[in-house]
């Protein structure tokens, strides 16, 4: 194992999914929907696969998908995107993230990022030789401490990596918070990589704002999204990135040596999907919101306090609120093996010492009857 990767174990998502399967537990750990996305999108993939060609598509992505991404970004964010130069298709958002780190960071460069953080961020930064500078967000509102964020930036900062709507907190960054990030990125002349895979899964009157749209940020920001989340097709691993031509080409330089390209029939099907009518996007949001409400109410009936959740697939339950005094890891193992419900321990998303990690992350993008069954099992156990 390389020295960098020796410091990391098996990803928590795999660990908890395996444990869930072993114990036949309802898997509310790893984030994936239990119903596949729209049948018409899957039919396009089947037809395109049948008709072909099934050979290497262009390195930047099939024209149909790049055009659809440009159209999507104009429709939802008012962005003016040149599909030929400003869009890159990758194998999942994960590859966009990896290509961004490998394409932009030099060994010794500092990278500002928020904790809790999504599992692949830190290893990717380290593989690229970057030095992480963490800014911790704490429950229940996950607010940014302005002075801590200011202090994390220096003249060595190469980029800030952020995620909104944010996994695992369910936080949606406000305009003020994005303005503060923009001010610091501009002041220190850094890049910003914004992971927006949950852009269409935002609740109530909260609205997703892309950092890319803020004044002065267009030239330095790459926005990353994923068909996995928007179309409930997480196994397809089709992601896309929008940035200026210059920034896109720097990132594409790494992409060409990582995967080079992504399955053409899936790309065409996602292009078809992105053009779906507003009602599709409304339904996605409303359905996820009602699942959040249903599951949150269930947790609260059992006696759990839950942290705020304005977006994503995830809600966090405070395990101390029902008098559990072990670690979150013990809690998640216990409920998986004994109650028959799997969750992810929040501590898996923190690196620094002293964080409050008495939370279990539950994934609620499941059929209502599955959510109800999980609540019933937890209720019986506690
Ligand atoms: N970023 C975040 C915040 C995620 O939660 C996920 C996956 N769930 C990804 C990136 C990876 O997306 P993809 O599956 O498209 O690679
Ligand atoms: N993003 C998903 C989660 O947070 C998992 C993706 C994966 O398993 N790599 O649960």
From TrEMBL:
<feature type="domain" description="Aminotransferase class I/classII large">
    <location>
        <begin position="25"/>
        <end position="378"/>
    </location>
</feature>
<dbReference type="InterPro" id="IPR051326">
    <property type="entry name" value="Kynurenine-oxoglutarate_AT"/>
</dbReference>
<dbReference type="InterPro" id="IPR015424">
    <property type="entry name" value="PyrdxlP-dep_Trfase"/>
</dbReference>
<dbReference type="InterPro" id="IPR004839">
    <property type="entry name" value="Aminotransferase_I/II_large"/>
</dbReference>
<dbReference type="GO" id="GO:0008483">
    <property type="term" value="F:transaminase activity"/>
</dbReference>
<dbReference type="InterPro" id="IPR015422">
    <property type="entry name" value="PyrdxlP-dep_Trfase_small"/>
</dbReference>
<dbReference type="InterPro" id="IPR015421">
    <property type="entry name" value="PyrdxlP-dep_Trfase_major"/>
</dbReference>
<keyword id="KW-0808">Transferase</keyword>
<protein>
    <submittedName>
        <fullName>Aminotransferase</fullName>
    </submittedName>
</protein>
<keyword id="KW-0032">Aminotransferase</keyword>
<keyword id="KW-0663">Pyridoxal phosphate</keyword>
<dbReference type="Pfam" id="PF00155">
    <property type="entry name" value="Aminotran_1_2"/>
</dbReference>
């Amino acid at each position: 194992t390389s020295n960098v990767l020796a410091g990391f174990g098996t990803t928590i998502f795999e660990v908890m999914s395996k444990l869930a399967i072993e114990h036949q537990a309802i898997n509310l750990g790893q984030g994936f929907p239990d119903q596949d996305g729209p049948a018409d999108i899957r039919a396009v993939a089947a037809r395109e696969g049948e008709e072909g060609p099934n050979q290497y598509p262009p390195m930047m992505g099939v024209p149909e998908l790049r055009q659809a991404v440009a159209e999507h970004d104009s429709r939802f964010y008012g962005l003016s995107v040149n599909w030929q130069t400003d869009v890159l298709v990758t194998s999942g958002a994960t590859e966009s993230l990896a290509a961004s780190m490998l394409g932009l960071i030099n060994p010794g460069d500092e990278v500002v990022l928020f904790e809790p953080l999504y599992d692949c961020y830190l290893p990717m930064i380290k593989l690229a030789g970057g030095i992480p500078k963490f800014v911790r967000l704490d429950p229940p509102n996950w607010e940014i401490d302005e002075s801590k964020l200011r202090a994390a930036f220096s003249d060595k900062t190469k980029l800030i990596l952020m995620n909104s709507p944010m996994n695992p907190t369910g936080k949606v960054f406000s305009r003020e918070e994005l303005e503060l990030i923009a001010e610091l990125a501009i002041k220190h002349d850094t890049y910003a990589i914004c992971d927006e895979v949950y852009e269409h899964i935002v609740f109530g009157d909260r609205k997703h704002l892309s950092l890319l749209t803020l004044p002065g940020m267009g030239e330095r920001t790459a926005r990353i999204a994923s068909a996995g989340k928007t179309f409930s097709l997480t196994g397809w691993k089709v992601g896309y990135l929008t940035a200026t031509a210059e920034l896109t080409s720097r990132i594409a330089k790494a992409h060409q040596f990582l995967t080079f390209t992504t399955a053409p029939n899936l790309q065409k099907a996602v292009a078809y999907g992105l053009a779906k009518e507003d009602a599709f996007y409304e339904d996605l949001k409303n359905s996820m919101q009602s699942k959040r409400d249903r599951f949150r109410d269930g947790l609260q009936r059992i006696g759990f306090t839950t942290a705020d959740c304005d977006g994503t697939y995830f809600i966090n339950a405070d395990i101390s609120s029902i008098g559990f005094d072990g670690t979150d890891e013990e809690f998640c193992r216990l409920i998986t093996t004994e109650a028959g419900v799997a969750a992810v321990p929040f501590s898996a998303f923190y690196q620094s010492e002293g964080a409050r990690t008495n939370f279990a992350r539950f994934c609620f993008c499941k059929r209502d009857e599955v959510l109800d069954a999980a609540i019933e099992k937890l209720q019986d156990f506690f």
